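Hi V.,

You were right to ask for the full record rather than a summary. Here it is.
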Amino acid sequence: MISIIICSRNKDIPEQLKSNIEATIGVQYELVVIDNSKQDYSIFSAYNEGIRRASYNYLCFMHEDILYCSDDWGKKVIAHLSAPEIGLIGLAGSYYLLHIPSPWFKAKPRVKNLIQTRRPSKAPKHYTLDECKKVVCVDGFWFCSRKDVFMQIAFDEKIFNRFHFYDLDISMQIHEKGYSIYIIPDITVNHFSGGSLNKQWLESAYLFHEKWKHSLPVTVYPSLKKSPLVEVKAFRDLLYLHKKHKVPITGAIRRIGWDNLKFGIVGAYLLLMLKRLF
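Predicted structure:
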């Protein structure tokens, strides 16, 4: 009943993950593993290929560096997505997205339901929810949808050709189609890595911003109050990534800061100086 789509760095996924899925999913499923060992695919093209190969209506997109901690999670996926108004579910996401190019988790408060294990030397961090939370986007390490939703949309290979922003872009497409997006509380996974805000991420951030600039900022809770420092810090971090990866800060980038922060842009530069010092 569920097609599990994975873009793998190797020819196949680890046996430990196969065994974990088999022991926990609780429903009929198929593994659709896209062999990306030769880097023939971007994450966008790999997932589109996975959808073409998928036999079932319920689609689970996941990274290969997670393990499931919940039994019968497949039944729970189907139960959530059986509501036709729900187009996407995930385990981490945000109530809103900023107009400033930034990762989803810069928008605070944010929503998480997972165990995060970044390094064996550090204790795992546990994030839990008591109920479903409606959001505007999900993180890409794990999310599920339906094939009938993807009859209306697709991962955008025309604009993006790398491994970043596939999750936010597909979230925006599903949101714009009028579907609801939820972070769910009843499935837990252990995620064994974090994201990488590298130079490729920075390039993709501007592609995403250019594509969606007329829809951003976007929120599912217009009355939600956020700290004014959220946008200032987001712009500071954007500037920091430019410095870190030696990417010039152009007038167009400064214009993004001015349009959103006005004189708050001064605070962003001051915070950047402090960040680089310490």
